Amino acid sequence: RYGKMQRDRIAVAVSELPRSQKSPDRLARETGARFVALTTRPGGLPHTSTYPDMVRYNVLQWANALDAA
Question: H or E segment at 31?
Fold first, then answer.
């Protein structure tokens, strides 16, 4: 099912919150890719009450996932 991701060696997959985590968790398990959940609105997660805070959160999520990949 996720053969293309494995063939193309996709290391990081992205989804937006507050979607269900079932599919991304399964995708990560089956492909070995890291999963990053980003928020699309300020206040969507703790410590993201302003737009700059939200952007900072998303950038840190990306950076941590890419660093670990």
Answer: helix 22-31
Tell me the C-alpha distance between 18 and 31, whole Å: 22
Contact of 33 with 24, CB cutoff 8 Å: no
Cβ-based neighbour number of residue 33 at 10 Å: 21
Q: Is the pLDDT of residue 54 over 90?
A: yes
**Tell me, what DSSP letter sits at residue 27?**
H
Place of tokens 């805070």: 53
Query: What does the pLDDT read at residue 19?
Result: 63
**Residue 59 burial (10 A CB sphere; 0-12, 13-18, 19+):** exposed
Look-up of token digits 């840190």: 60
pLDDT in tens, 8-49: 888 888 878 766 667 777 878 888 888 888 898 899 888 899
